Amino acid sequence: MSARRRWLALEPAGLPVLAVLLAFALCAAAILALGRSPLAAAGALLDGGLGGLEPLGESALKATALTWTGLAVALPFAAGLFNIGAQGQFLVGALAAAWAGRVLDLPAPLELPLVLGFAFALGALWALIAAELKTRRGVHEVISTILLNWIAIHLIDSWLVTGPLHASGSQGFSHSGTEVVRASAHLPLLAGAGSRLNAGLPLAAAGALAVWWLLRRTPFGLELRAIGSSEPTARAVGIPVGRRISQVMAVAGGLAALGGAMMILGGGTDFRYPENYRDPYGFDGIAIALIGAGNPFGVAAAAALFGTLRAGAVRLQDPEIGLHRSWPEIAQGVAVVLVAGQLLLRGLWRWPLRFARKPAAAGAPEASP
Amino acid sequence: MTHSAALGAIAVSILAYAPPVALAALGGVLSERAGVINIGLEGMMRFGALFGAWCSLAAGSGPAAPWCGLLAGAAAGAAGGALLGFLAVWARADQIVAGVAINLLALGLVTFLLEWGMGASGGISDPVAMLPSIPLGPLGRLPAVATGAMLVLPAAASLFLRRTPAGLRWRAVGENPRAVAAAGVSVRGLRFAAAVASGALAGLGGALLPLALLGRFEDRMPAGQGFIALAAVVFGKWTPLGALGAAAFFAGAEGLQIELSSGGSLAALVPKGFFLALPYVLTLLVLAGLVGKAVPPAADGVPYDPEGR
């Protein structure tokens, strides 16, 4: 392969990396323009995200949630479906885990898998509404999943968590949201009590591997990708498109729900579903999936990167840094805008080729720049 | 409370609280009728609300300050619309991805601008000068500018789309762009203009939140009203007056909930969440064809490729 072809072959993986680097560069320029030091900011972010077990635990908590919601968007993407509903599915999973983790009373080795399984199932059912509306009534999944997000938010916030599932308040301290889950449902800690690093992170990594395997190594994944590249063709060769759409949306809903469940069971919200819970990990999952270019490993990498930066952002407010904590979010937003503008990124990626010598006529030995 | 007083309160809640959603939904109608899906309404409302509050605050306490804010809000929304237009029309981005990107960008950037730029802490800005309103005795105040804009702009847009040659071209670009191109009209130019107009209206709607209703900016704004607007576009079957009706209906449902829960009768039996979820559930039912049928413009969301067939 010529260097030119190799460069072009790298493009699908290279464009998101380029988008992230460009976003960082733009943010660095803005920070410089504010009269602050981007280098000091980067140092604080890395130290705040990776410097020690406690920060690592915070980064892992966020990266875990982002990996699951990112996978929940990326998996249906392979079949050409845009799951904007990861936020609602995430919240449904979080509430399911908070409820089951309270009412189930089983030995620890049984309880945790059962609670996670219950959350997965409810998330899957919630996402299935959108799938059935699409396959039976032709409702576009983008609009239905957006609507379902808000239905979930309002029913949970203004009914379930303030009504039937509200903590009775008998613990003697002010307590909003649901009851605290049993200790047997907590995700096992990996680094002692001083860090929230827990089994969620390896489980999320396994999830990314499983989604990759599902997409790349099973007939199911092959059929999904066939639907994604051309639905009429997939139909013509006998793939049951409607059934596959339902299945992939259900799995996606379950994945996002696992993200919510692990946020609750990992202690991200003090082991309960809080009142007016607003962490936008499901919305961010769309960003993670786009930055990860729909690839499960790309999703895991993007989730690790932005999870770390978000955890590290608390350090940006240190007086000697003097920056606002939302810079990682801004960088993520800019990166998604750049990813959306694929055509521009592609032009930029191919720009170095202008300086390479044009390949000689067919058959002639290829020139290497 | 008597029935007439309750009805009056609900009417006021429609006239006061529907305008932000109605204007954003009108923006959504205008862009979708030209073939550009604007998922970014929420983000554009957020930009409009922040810059509206910021400029009103910066302009001081004179009578002109809130009007500066209103203008700035529309301009900020239009800038968001221009970004959508640029990505969707010129960079041929997936329109949904582009809209989502704008929402995500607005999420972090506005928090930053609020706390760093406006110097607010705790997610709430200082009080801003508000647009003139009319006192209604026990029913509170009517935000006259918001109500007026809600009554005038959708009607004007409806006349524009249905009765003017430019409106015909606008609709045609959303139904059959190739025919419009054949008639010598720039499809890209028109779609870009539609995205900008859509953003300006969403920004205007967003700016009403601090300037006409709340008197300050809060970090949670617009709290999903951009998505309600998106639902109103569908519920109103992609027409300006339909979207207005949908926005009014949704606001009415919320006003009814407030009345019921303060009335104390049947209210306690129906959880607030049911009322809040109602607009979204109804829109899903409409989309599923269980309550009427909604058909989007034929080329809605389809990128225009001049070389394609």
Radius of gyration of chain A, rounded? 22 Å
Which parts of chain A are unreliable, with pLDDT below 50 for 5 consecutive residues or more?
Answer: 361-369
- Mean pLDDT of chain A, to the nearest integer, reads 90
Distance between the termini of chain B: 63 Å
Radius of gyration of chain B: 19 Å
Strand content of chain B: under 5%
Instruction: Give the tally of β-strands of chain A.
Output: 0
When the domains of chain B are counted, the total is 1
Which stretches of chain B are low in confidence, meaning pLDDT under 50 for 5 or more residues running? none
- Element-level helix/strand string of chain A: HHHHHHHHHHHHHHH
Q: Name the helicity range of chain B.
A: 55-70%
Number of domains of chain A: 1
CATH topology of chain B: ABC transporter involved in vitamin B12 uptake, BtuC
Give me the secondary-structure category of chain B.
mainly alpha
